[in-house]
Amino acid sequence: MEQNILEIKNLSKLFGPNTEQGVRLLEQGYNKERLAKEKGITVGVNQMSLSVNKGEIFVIMGLSGSGKSTLVRMLNRLIEPTSGEILLHGKDLLKMNKAQLREVRRKHITMVFQKFALFPHRTVLQNVEYGLEIQKVNKEERKQKAMQALELVGLKGWENKYPDQLSGGMQQRVGLARALANDPEILLMDEAFSALDPLIRRDMQDELIELQEKMKKTIIFITHDLDEALRLGDRIALMKDGALVQLGTPEEMLTQPANGYVERFIEDVDLSKVITASRVMRRPETVTLDRGPRVALQLMRERGISNLFVIDRGKRLLGVITAEDAAKALKAGQGLQDILITDGPKVSQDTLLGDLFEVTSSAKVPLAVVEDDGKLLGVIVRGAVLGALAGGLSDEVSDLEVKEHE
Amino acid sequence: MNNIPKIPIEAWVDRLVDWMDTTFGGFFDSLSTIIEFIVNLFSNLFLLPHPLLFIAILSVLAFLIGRWPLTLFTAIGFLLIDNLGYWTETMNTLGLVITSGLISILFGIPIGIWSAYSKATHRIVFPLLDFMQTMPAFVYLLPAVTFFSLGVVPGVIASVIFAIPPTIRLTTLGIQQVSGELAEAADAFGSTSWQKLFKVELPLAMPTMMTGVNQTIMLSLSMVVIASMIGAQGIGATVYRAVTQLKIGQGFEAGLAVVILAIVLDRFTQGLFKTKKRGD
Questions:
Q1: d(CA A92, CA A9)
Q2: Between B179, B189, B192, which is nearest A131 by CB?
Q3: Which of residues 166-205 of B touch A (CB under 8 A)?
Q4: Per-residue pLDDT in tens (0 to 9) along chain B, 280 residues
Q5: Most B CBs within 10 Å, among A102, A182, A220, to test the B interface
Q6: Is residue A327 part of a domain?
Q7: What residue ranges carry the coiled-coil annotation (chain B) (predicted)?
Q8: Does A238 share its domain with A306?
């Protein structure tokens, strides 16, 4: 479904003498340290391969010196790669001549910089117009497009100010507007929010997510901040020493860390803000409405549980029944519809753990996870939420919680 | 040590100068004609209106550039020069200074840009600039006279050699000072090299470059007395004559005229670039 827009294959950047020989040695299995010691070659990026899907926010994360900034600068050839391929819609950027590369930079890939890199001698509007101006777009059109971009980032009315008259957050909005004015397919954001103070940073992250809903650009976002990566990223690539350590969704990174390095990296993460309902939900025990209380009680006894979800033939959730009510109904000769609790708590599978906790702690019956059309997906018991928060997400832990629930 | 014969640098230089004179004589002649034409053009232009009219024009310019203080200083200063009777000489000097200033800018800025872009050029040009600035000015008056004979032209050439370094140096510095991230931003949006130079680097380097241009004009003014020794007419010649004839009073008057001219030129060039920057 998702088509990949940008793909890199075996991309390397080496610094120092005789870098081509260095690439061959890397391929032969030399590691970074050996290459530095024996040949005096520094490896910036080491044979990276990955592909970015259209419309996603792809986060490249790593500590300083991990090669992430070098990598992103190779994507528009601000830094010339030593070897490898960069395929934009299948066309290799490295085989392009200067004019073709300029076209790519003008129409397809634009960039937002860490320290904003606004031109101080130009007004906000002139800054945003820059990309169009150098393409010789006529004045009215470029003004119109620039104003649109400024409006999008909420800076209408500031167009005649100079960058130094704006706060940091506003300056970076200008940076963003400048990158958007060209209507690129891909936006490279190099530590774009790192220079901002934490509160402004949060706001900018929220706004970026909101903007992305409207624009559906492909965004490649570089950061050293795990929280930022988890908030923004549809997928995250974690880099270390110029190489890819792990690539996956935020949840995959947290729940299945590829190795000790990733584990240490994610150690301090507040899981409640990352893990979603779909991760902690279990298979629901269900019964259809046409069965009687006797069947329901039997099912509960067999499974060792105290309540059941009632669904229709389309697996849509109708409500929940408890064992206690079922027993009473059996005596009174009532049907399941008479004891059905229809106002039980429901959440979507994207609900964050932190929000689940509140719901489960106040609810009498287990939490149902449903799709938008009402189809039942799973059940969340309180113990599972606590267990996940405590960091244990393995299956054994989930099983333990079932017993606890009994 | 005494076994080593004297290295004949003197003979080499003499021979080189002779060879250049015979080989490029024609070229030097036409260059001489052009420079002389420009100097005369400016001098005559400045001498064309009545001194009072020219002072009025300058005062208006001064007001536009530096408001009242500069206006008053310019008007009173130039009226004094006229009153003392050095008007023609001062205008001749102004013509010479403007000409050498323009030539310095015309060559200095492109050389400065080139040095900023090319390490090799930088490595050749900058030591040469040190050489030009430290070599006593009198020394290169000699070859200037050899190639261009006496008069105003060798004066202009000597002034340019002496005065061009700040323009080159500060142009290079100004461009190198443009932050890497801004240059990167210009590239990232697909600028051609020329677009990057003219839309980003030069505008940002402008204040630094203009300091260089200001220095260049000041230095070429400081050469007027020396230039007068090889026959350049103007206020410098008056100073020189006064010194050789021990006319202290006249020397002071002429010196005063140079100082007034220097201050006005300095404030004009500084102020001009500041207003220009604001207008951008």
A1: 10
A2: B189
A3: 179, 181-182, 184-185, 187-192, 195, 199-200, 203-204
A4: 567 888 888 888 888 888 888 888 888 888 888 888 888 888 888 888 888 888 888 888 888 887 788 888 888 888 888 888 888 888 888 888 898 999 999 999 999 999 999 889 999 999 999 888 888 877 778 778 878 778 788 888 888 888 899 999 999 999 999 888 899 999 999 999 899 999 999 999 988 998 999 899 888 888 888 888 887 788 888 888 888 888 888 888 888 888 888 888 888 888 776 654 444 3
A5: A102
A6: yes
A7: none
A8: no
Torsion sign, CA atoms B266, B272, B273, B278: positive
Fill in the amino acid letter for B27: F
**A102 and A154 co-located in one domain:** yes
The backbone torsions φ and ψ at residue A358, rounded to the nearest 5 degrees and listed phi first, read: -60, -45
CA-nearest residue to A111 within chain B is B188
Token couple for A24: 């061959």
Q: Which pTM value belongs to this model?
A: 0.72
User: Quick one: how far is CA A180 from the chain centroid?
Assistant: 20
CATH number (domain holding residue B123): 1.10.3720.10
Q: In whole angstroms, what separates CA A122 from the centre of its chain?
A: 35
Judge contact between A310 and A340, C-beta under 8 A: yes
| Chain B residues close to A188, C-beta within 8 Å | 188
Angle between helices A139-152 and A124-133 in degrees, nearest 10: 120
| Cα of A331 vs its chain's centroid, Å | 53
Q: Are residues A253 and A285 in the same domain?
A: no
| Spatial separation of the C-alpha atoms in residues B175 and B209, rounded to whole Å | 9
Pairwise CB contact (< 8 Å): B184 & A105: no
Q: Locate B71 and state its tokens.
A: 């206006």
Chain A residues with CB within 8 Å of chain B CB: 73, 76, 78, 101-106, 110-111, 113-115, 117-121, 130-131, 133-135, 178, 182, 188
What residues make up the domain containing A396? 277-405
Domain boundary among A252, A270, A288: A270
CATH of the domain at A286: 3.10.580.10
Q: What is the ipTM of this complex?
A: 0.74
